[in-house]
Amino acid sequence: MTASKKNLKQPDEFNRLSDLKERRFVGYIAEIIFDKELGYLSEFGLERVFLASNSVSAQFNLLRTGAGVGIVHGFALPFEPNLERVPLEVFLLRRLLYLTWQSDDRPVNRLNRFAKDLISKARFEVAPLERKA
Q: pLDDT (tens digit, 9 = 90+) per residue, 63-79?
């Protein structure tokens, strides 16, 4: 959970999931969520968001400008000093990322090497961020 420093003037007032009901939450448009893993509102006890977009980039920019609180990929936080983790009670939202390509391309060695290298580097970059969570 993240918010801009502007929205965290008193961080100790916001430390339970139930406190989300009093905050402007930025998230996905519920009616057009294309993957069930993006439907995390119920995990926070929320039914709707204050500002919605199905673009992760748009949500990120809304949050960094102080529009509310929301979810940001942990690996994006180091690149936006205006965003901070919200000090919530025990909270971890973990999602899976998939790498897919056409089945016709499976036998192409250079694509398999690229995929293996990409996965390896992604794991290397994400591991320290997960330890901070």
A: 999 898 888 887 788 88
